[in-house]
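Hey L., structure's done. Input below.
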Amino acid sequence: MRIVDTYVLRSVIKPLAGAMAIGLLVLLAERMVRLLDTILGKKNSFAVVFELLAYLVPHYLGLAVPAALFLGLLFGFNKLSKDSELAAFMASGIGVSRLTRPVVLLSLALTLISIFIIGWAQPHTRYAYRSVLFDVRNIDVFYLAEEGVFMQAGTRTFIIDKLERSTNKFERIFLFDYRGPAGSETVTATHGRLIEVPGERRPVLRLEDGHRLKLDRWPFGGTTPEPPTAVVSNFVEAETPLGKVTDTVFRPRGDDERELTIIELWQQLDTPPKRSTKDQMRAEFHKRLVDMLTLLMLPFLAVPFAIGRGRGQRAYRFGLALVILVVVHEVIEQGAVATRTSGASPYLTIWLPFAAVTAFAAWRFWLAAFVLKADRLDNAIDRLSALTNAGWLSLVKRLGFGARA
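Output:
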């Protein structure tokens, strides 16, 4: 039996690993494109992008692991059925329920991993991701400057024509400093450089060969009867600190429910953090529990569709199984949204759909493992397949593609 268990696990783990790797790469690639669009070409951009992607891995694993397990079960048991290995096992006295035992243990192991990922890793990495984004968006804007793009740094708006990132040198800068009632200052320069001063928290912006226009006050649409006083000057070289010295750091973890671990959610259900409500806390807590338990249900949902009787309708069974999984996922997601926004009971919006699909999976598995005759769903799929094939053949004949030369 150890050989049989190993063989079944190997048949499932190969497509499972492939599906997980492909799914994770696709999800990360989609997010990487958006991050590169925001950060590419800026200081340490690639290091920041890969750091952010690393923090996203637990989030996407929470999505990829159930889908990969489901596909691995479908493809693995379908291979056993298609190659008549399942019939050989059953002829030797090893039934479907016994063949499913190792994959149930596999789903239990993945559930334990999922508890750690969803319950602890995701809240901490989500906070770390937001913290890095905060740092990127709040460091001095010059480090994020792009050529030919207007940028904002506090009260200063500037645009740079050419920028050499490796040396922090640039050419042709336009800088406008709006100071409200105190007036404004406009500076243009042909060359410049950003100098990092050891021991100083602010870099120094050095401008060369420039012009300055300074207004002592700002004309607010005729409220001031006299025009402001303007001072125009030229300079060979000028230096000014860039940015503000601030002790502001990113907020502590736990300001919203998605940054709390599963234990912290349970402990604070009645005392939510300032950016969350009791309904949001309940929705997040119950949804995480359902996400963790979903992996235990998947073998009983997937195996009957993978070994369904009849060879010609496997594609329809696969499609129907995937549709059921996606629909259940969306129903639970929308149920969590309903609890979060309207205060609906999570037992009605989250647990009821999960219980319904679990009962459906148990019924299907019972028919596949312990009942010899085909169930009604198999018959419905067979009839749908026959009608679809008949309609397709009729269409081909009408179009003339089926005629012989």
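Confidence is low (pLDDT under 50) at residues 244-248. Residues 95 and 190 are 81 Å apart (CA to CA).

-- N.
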